[in-house]
Design brief:
- This protein is α/β, with parallel strands linked by helices.
- It has one domain: HUPs (Rossmann fold), CATH 3.40.50.
- The protein has helices at about 40-55, 70-80, 95-115, 135-140, 200-215, 270-285; strands at about 1-5, 10, 35, 55-60, 80-85, 120, 145-155, 160-170, 170-180, 185-190, 225.
- The protein has a nine-stranded mixed sheet, with helices on both faces. A two-stranded antiparallel sheet has the order 2-3.
- The longest helix has 19 residues, at about 200-215.
Length: about 290
């Protein structure tokens, strides 16, 4: 079973150090980058599939060279065997459509030069764009079936079939079970929770974790970087020129003022700490 887990670096909005230029455009080079939170669910789904059915998992991301740290984090999270970074100045300012074209070309190159892919996992949406378009558009470019809002899944290797439970659009309380032939694209929902009920699966999970801790130390030795020329992409269909979306500006969301009063207690102030304990005790008792 061979899978590719797509992930992306996004600005660390929680850090409070998001930088914008004078035109209101996000300056990614001056803003801390972290793995997109929703991608963790896709990584967990890829890991569960590997634990249950064996095989190989590759992490893949498109972005500047600094995104190698995001792929390293993905390796530590999903215990991936290797990483692929699609990085090139010609790809800068890509919208979701140009990104999907690039990622699908990278997956096709992977299939030609590395091995056939059974599954591509992607997160629900990114914390910066919030569109949720890239995964479905990549599936469309590949002409593969896609299953979205997945909260549980398993594979029938003999039948080459995916069976998944997904949330029905518009009603998070309604769940449907669907099947799709492999290869296919899986878009995980934030409600996805991996399950390892068998002892053999839990032991395999532990083994992979120990193995990956050693591999992640030398992540660069397991990293392959491709540019647009490696993917034989026409510059007119990638980057800013290939992006039909036009973003006029981005307005930072102001931080909400705190409405709670805070009392500072010195750790050496015994009376003050006693007061804190008295305040907390009723809640600890469940009152």
């Amino acid at each position: 079973m061979r899978s590719i887990a797509l992930t992306k670096g996004v600005p660390d909005f929680s850090d409070g150090a998001v930088s914008f230029d004078e035109d209101g455009h996000l300056e990614r080079g001056k803003t801390p980058t972290v793995m997109n939170p929703n991608d963790h669910f896709a990584l967990e789904a890829a890991l569960q599939t590997r634990v249950r059915h064996g095989g190989h998992v590759s992490g893949m991301s498109m972005g500047p060279p600094s995104y190698s740290s995001v792929l390293e984090e993905a390796m530590e999270a999903v215990y991936s065997d290797d990483s692929y970074l699609i990085s090139d100045r010609a790809l800068a300012a890509s919208d979701t459509w140009a990104t999907a074209i690039t990622l699908s070309a990278a997956i096709e190159k992977y299939q030609e030069e590395v091995a056939d892919v059974d599954l591509v996992f992607a997160g629900f949406k990114t914390a910066d764009g919030e569109t949720g378009h890239t995964g479905p558009q990549t599936a469309w470019c590949l002409e593969w079936p896609i299953v979205t809002h997945v909260i549980a899944l398993d594979i029938d290797p003999e039948e080459e079939q995916l069976r998944a439970k997904r949330l029905v659009e518009g009603d998070v309380d309604e769940i449907e079970t669907v099947e799709a032939p492999l290869p296919c694209v899986v878009i995980t929902d934030p409600e996805f929770e991996p399950t390892y009920r068998k002892a053999a699966h839990r032991l395999e999970h532990k083994r992979l974790r120990a193995e990956t801790q050693e591999r992640a130390v030398d992540h660069d030795d397991h990293l392959t970087t491709w540019g647009h020329a490696d993917l034989n992409l026409d510059p007119d269909y990638i980057g800013l020129d290939g992006s039909p979306t036009i973003v006029s500006s981005v307005d930072p969301i102001p931080k909400a003022p705190s409405e709670r009063e805070a009392t500072m207690i010195d750790p050496t102030d015994e009376d003050g700490l006693e007061q804190v304990l008295e305040e907390c005790q009723p809640f600890a008792a469940g009152d």
